[in-house]
Amino acid sequence: MLISESRAQLEMQLAEKTPNGIAGLPPSPGTVFDVFRQFAAVPATDAAPAQEDGDGVLAQFGPADHADTIAFMVDLTRQFIETSDENPAIWQLSCVFLWPESPPTSALGRGTLWSFDLSLDGFFAATAALPGWAWALATDQAPNHFAISFDRV
Known about the structure:
The protein is an alpha+beta fold. Helices cover about 30% and strands about 30% of the residues.
């Protein structure tokens, strides 16, 4: 897979696992988590190696500004750094879920975890144990927002 093909690859994998497709109801956090885990194992042939921090995954959770309100967010982002001798481009492909902020989600705080120096299995096990991600994977409350973005940073 090329970096430029990564969004289409992720969306295809999500569509295969989501009964309504990604254009219908949002996929569950568990579905996105499982698909992202599989997607993270697909090499990006034009990214620097993971050992050089050129291909990694970031898990985040916590309060976030959204539409002039504070929301609770969980996010998985795959970051790619192009192989280049000078000024390599950095790309981020993210899946983000938002819920209304509430006392239980406020109590979770915020956190981040990078996959660098971890195996993918170890990273995803640690991500599932992060307080925000543990809540998102266990809650029966549907998110009020889900988005996939692909940006040069």
